[in-house]
Structures are given as structure tokens and as C-alpha cells.
Amino acid sequence: MQTYVYLLVFLHIADGCKLSDYSRITIDASSGGSAVLPCSCADPQATVSNLRWQYRKENVVGGFNDIYPTDETQRFKSRIQLVNAAAPGNFSLHISHLTAEDEGLYQCQDKNQTSNYRLVTLQVKFTATVSTPRPGSGIKTTPSTPRPGSGSKTTPSTPRPVTPKPNGDSLSTPEAGKSLPFIPFAVVTVIILQIIVAVVYCTPQKKMLAEFTTAQLMEMEV
Ligand SMILES: *[C@@H]1O[C@H](CO)[C@@H](O)[C@H](O)[C@H]1NC(C)=O
Ligand SMILES: *[C@@H]1O[C@H](CO)[C@@H](O)[C@H](O)[C@H]1NC(C)=O
């Protein structure tokens, strides 16, 4: 069994470049970002002289379209390049400025030996950076937020009378508290002023009385 596997591997190496182990690869990327779709010869020394990348949408009837080296779709031209051009057996494809439209099935294939290929599924997810512009640009979502906002405005309006009421109560209670102590304070002040006036008015009389009494006493002594 091991010798059989070894023989198979040897035969494939002998064949040249083997692009796939036939297990499909799924690459996750985010919109606006970039992705590297891996494809390389099992033997790093091997290469494919006539390699192409193809693309087709998943769950859509229709064949593959070439995207590299020629772009039949006209969609990828300026956005794709082989990453590791230095390694002759590495045909990994870099795609930048991804959009949801780029989702689908990618295939790197030896044009001269079409059974030698690898399939890569690309999934493009929306990121927070893309979802944030969307509500910003999407006027439909912004009205939906104002609507709850206006609803919240009406709800505040109902709390507003409620909040003023406590405010009014709190204001009226301090006012009553202020006015209530103010009245006795004024009364006390008036009484104190009256006492002062009375004292001031009486003191000369007392003085006179005192002088009079002292004078009397002086007379008495004399
Ligand atoms: C091929 O190149 C890409 C990008 O440089 C790298 O990530 C990948 O590991 C390479 N594949 C092999 C088998 O060396
Ligand atoms: C691949 O096929 C083309 C013609 O389609 C031919 O010119 C070329 O020599 C072939 N390359 C190899 C390595 O067989």
C-alpha cells in the first residue's frame, strides 16, 4: 500500500507539476480587503508553463471565465496578480479591493492538462467598516433611526411633564422652604430693629435718669 502511494507520488512528480490534492479550499475575506488564493505545484521544483486562473459564480449555471493571464470578465484586470512570481511553481493569486461580487469559485488550471487543477472557494463577508458607511449612506436606515428617535422624542415629552413636575415640586418645596423661613426671619429682624430703636431711644432717658439720680445723690451728699 505504501509503495503504491509512493509510486503514485513519484509518478505525479515525474508528471511535473501537480496543482491539487483535490480537496477544495475555502478562503474567507472581507469586502474592501484582499485575499490570496493558494495554488502551487506539489513539487516546488516543478512548474506549469501554461497556467490560467478561472472564475465562476457558485450556484449559477455557466462555465468558468478566464481571469488570468487574460481577464474575460474585465472585472479583475487591475486587481489580481500572482503573489510569488519568484517561485516558478507558485501560482497563488492575490485579489484586492474585494466586493461581494467576487464571491464564488476560482480555479487554477494547467491549460495543457485540464485535469490538473485546483478549486478555491472565496467567501467575502461584510466588515464593520463597510456596514457603518451603509447605514450612513442608506437613507432608509437613517429614517428608521429618527423614527424611534421621534418616538423617543414623544416619550421624552411625556416624561418631560413628569420630570418638570418633580422639578416644579422640588422648586416649589425649596421656594416654600425659603419663603417659610424668610417670614420668621423678617419678623425677627423687625422685632430686633424695634428693640434696637427702643434701646437707643431709652438709653438717653436712662442716662438722664442716671445723671439725674447721680445729681440727686450729689445733692444728697452735699
Ligand atoms: C506561494 O506564495 C504565497 C505567497 O507568497 C505563500 O503564502 C505560499 O505559502 C506559497 N506556497 C508555497 C507552497 O510555497
Ligand atoms: C500547451 O499548449 C499550447 C497550445 O495550446 C502549446 O503551444 C504549448 O507548447 C503547450 N505547452 C506544453 C508545456 O505542453
Strands, helices and their partners?
Blueprint: H1 2-15, E1 25-30, E2 35-37, E3 51-56, E4 65-68, E5 80-82, E6 93-95, E7 104-110, E8 113-125, H2 128-131, H3 133-137, H4 141-144, H5 146-157, H6 159-162, H7 164-221
Parallel strand pairs: 1-8
Antiparallel strand pairs: 2-6, 3-4, 3-7, 5-6, 7-8
Bound molecules: 2-acetamido-2-deoxy-beta-D-glucopyranose (2 copies).
The site of one 2-acetamido-2-deoxy-beta-D-glucopyranose has 6 residues, from loops.
Structure characterization notes:
The protein is of the alpha+beta class and 222 residues long. It has a domain at 2-125: Immunoglobulin-like (Sandwich), CATH 2.60.40. The protein is 45% helix and 20% strand. The strands form two sheets. It has a five-stranded mixed sheet with strand order 1-8-7-3-4, with no helix packed on it. The protein has a three-stranded antiparallel sheet with strand order 2-6-5, with no helix packed on it. It is rod-shaped, with a radius of gyration of 48 Å. The protein binds 2-acetamido-2-deoxy-beta-D-glucopyranose (2 copies). One 2-acetamido-2-deoxy-beta-D-glucopyranose is lined by residues 49-50, 112. It comes from Silurus meridionalis.
